[in-house]
Each structure stands twice: as C-alpha cells, then as structure tokens.
Design goal:
The chain is of the alpha/beta class. It has two domains: 138 residues, NAD(P)-binding Rossmann-like Domain (Rossmann fold, 3-Layer(aba) Sandwich), CATH 3.40.50.720; 179 residues, Dihydrodipicolinate Reductase, domain 2, CATH 3.30.360. A nine-stranded mixed beta sheet has the order 14-13-12-11-7-10-9-8-15. A six-stranded parallel beta sheet has the order 3-2-1-4-5-6, sandwiched between helices. Helix 1 links the parallel strand 1 and strand 2. The longest helix is centred in the C-terminal third of the chain and has 19 residues.
C-alpha cells in the first residue's frame, strides 16, 4: 500500500518533502502554504497538487498530513486533519496551552487515527545509543538529568514588515521538547509537577521576548529534571546539551556536535575516569528518516506510533506548566496526565 501524503508549511516542511521522496511506501501528492513563493520553489514535487487554503488542501485524497506550520497553528491544523480522516505527523511542540493539549488528545481518541509528534532529537545516534545503555541497566536507577537548548533566534522573530513572528511571543520553556523529550524517551517517565523562573526581557526589550527560561520538574519515578531554553541570548553557536545521572554512572553530551559524548560507569571504569566515545548526533535528515519510517510502520501495521499523542503531551505540557509557574513567582504547578 502506498500512502498518500500532504505537507502543510513548506518552511520546516521542506525536509519532509525530501524524506518522503525516498520512501517506496508513501508519496507526497499535495502541499500547502500561504506563501506562494514556497509552492513555486524548485524542490516542490512537480506532480503534487498545490494549495494556499488549508481547508481546500484537506479535501485532497490523503492518508497522512504532515503539519509544519507556525507553532500556534499546530492544534487547529491537527484537529482539522484528524476530523478530515487523516493520520497526523506534527512538528513540535504539540500545543500552545493545556486546553489545546486536551483538545488534541480528545480528537485522536475520537477519530481513532494515528498521531505522532515529530521530535527529531529523540532519534539522534547518541540518544539511541544511550537508550540501549539505560535499558541494559548500565546507569542503574536514573535520579537526575539536565538539558539545555540555546539558540539565538532573534533574526527569526521579526518579519520584513516589522511585525513579530510567533517566536517572539512564545515563552522559551514552552519549546522544551528538544530537551525534555529525549530524556523522557530514554527513561519512559513523565513529569508530575513543574516550577519555572525567567529573568524577563533584557537582551531584546524591543521585541519583548523573554531571554531564557528554566524549568524544574519532579518525575513520576522520583527523579528530578532541569531544563533551560533560551532563544534571545548572546551565546554562539547554538547547541543542545544533556546529562543524565544514575545510581551506577552518568552520561553527558558535549555542547557542540563535533565533540564526543562521554560516560562513567561504575562497573566498567574502576579508575573513575569519564570515558569518551564517538557519537554522530545525526541531526536534521537522518533523524527525520527514522521518524517517517516509524510513523509509516505504525499505520501499515496498526501499532502505536513511536511518539504517540500521550507521549506528545508528556513532552509538551510540562513546558506550559513551567511557564505558568514562572508567572506565579515559581509556585509549583501540577502537570496533567492525559493518559
């Protein structure tokens, strides 16, 4: 069976045009974007139908809709696609508010269709290797973890006409899925409570954007996570960083992809030295191949998507709760369980 795919949002969505073009089980047959210049770009599939109106796009005969539109549109576009009988692969985060999280879950449950969050950081070579080590018990019980995503996005916060984009309006910790998602993916845990703080807008007060924001999370297992996200910050180049502490050892990435990750394991490192090991982080491209493969297989085999709607909310809702906490001077906010 060849699945018919439609992609909406041809900024970030271009990578999925390429990934699906390599599939013999799926084909991009329709694309949608309000910007006609993107529809006319050379890398758009020549035989795909083109749409500027999302409602018209959803009338096309499609099995899958890949949602790569601006983050505040994710929920509306997801629900409309599901109600139109399409399986959904959605870029991160899954939703902007807790009520939106609930609405997406209800739509998936009502329609019975497949939904997967396209969190590519879970599919880096490093994280997949770490998962094997954690599942094998080499770290013992996980007790603490941290992750950071620092990326100065000020250049993407204002349009040519001077108006602000969604990136200027989004609280940084609400874009925590690249940091929190892989940790939850590795541990198969969930956040039950969140605390957040931020210093306000100091670096780009003309944009009104929060410099950076930190979230502290209590896990169902008893572990504690700390996540830092900053998108209006004087730090170059951009990076992801992760560290995981267990009762038997630790795993830590480096702050640049060209560096090697390292680990210490009590059982195999009696000299108590951190052991470096080469790790290709496999970012944009390879990770999306793995996402597409996993989603297609879940549809064809009628199995749980690798990052299903409940996982998606486990990755998304804690950041929303952490920002609510920051607005309440760091008061603890319970994280809903959508399962």
């Amino acid at each position: 069976m060849e699945l018919k795919v439609g992609v909406v949002g041809l900024g970030r969505g271009r990578i999925y045009l390429d990934r699906f073009s390599k599939q013999d089980r799926a084909e991009v047959v329709a694309v949608c974007d309000a910007d006609t210049s993107r529809l006319e770009a050379a890398d758009c599939p020549t035989d795909a139908s083109r749409y500027t109106d999302y409602k018209e796009f959803l009338k096309h005969d499609l099995n899958i809709v890949v949602i790569c539109t601006d983050m505040p549109q994710h929920t509306d576009h997801t629900i409309a696609a599901l109600e139109g009988g399409k399986h959904v692969l959605c870029e991160v985060p899954a939703a902007y508010t807790l009520s939106e999280c609930e609405a997406v879950v209800q739509a998936v449950e009502k329609t019975g269709l497949k939904y997967m969050l396209a969190e590519n950081c879970c599919y880096s070579d490093m994280h997949l290797a770490w998962k094997e080590q954690i599942d094998a018990g080499e770290l013992g019980k996980i007790i603490y973890a941290e992750a950071e995503y620092i990326h100065d996005c000020r250049g993407m916060m204002r349009r040519g006409d001077g108006t602000l984009t969604w990136r200027a309006k989004m609280p940084p910790i609400q874009y925590c899925t690249h940091s929190l998602g892989p940790l939850l993916f590795l541990m198969e845990d969930r956040c039950v409570a969140a605390t957040g703080l931020n210093p306000g807008s100091n670096i780009a007060p003309d944009l009104g954007v929060i410099d950076l924001e930190v979230g502290l999370f209590q896990m169902e297992s008893g572990a504690v996570f700390k996540i830092l996200c900053g998108f209006s910050i004087e730090r170059y180049p951009a990076f992801h960083w992760y560290v995981i502490y267990g009762t038997k050892g630790v795993l830590e990435s480096k702050r640049q992809y060209s560096d090697r990750a390292s680990g210490y394991f009590r059982g195999i490192a009696p000299d108590r030295e951190m052991t470096p090991f080469t790790s290709d982080d496999s970012g944009h491209g390879v990770a999306e191949d793995r996402i597409v493969d996993g989603f297609i297989e879940s549809i064809l085999n009628d199995t749980k998507p690798p990052i299903d709607v409940y996982d998606a909310m486990d990755y998304t809702a804690p950041g929303i709760c952490a920002h609510l906490s920051a607005e309440r001077d760091g008061a603890v906010v319970p994280v809903p369980n959508y399962r």
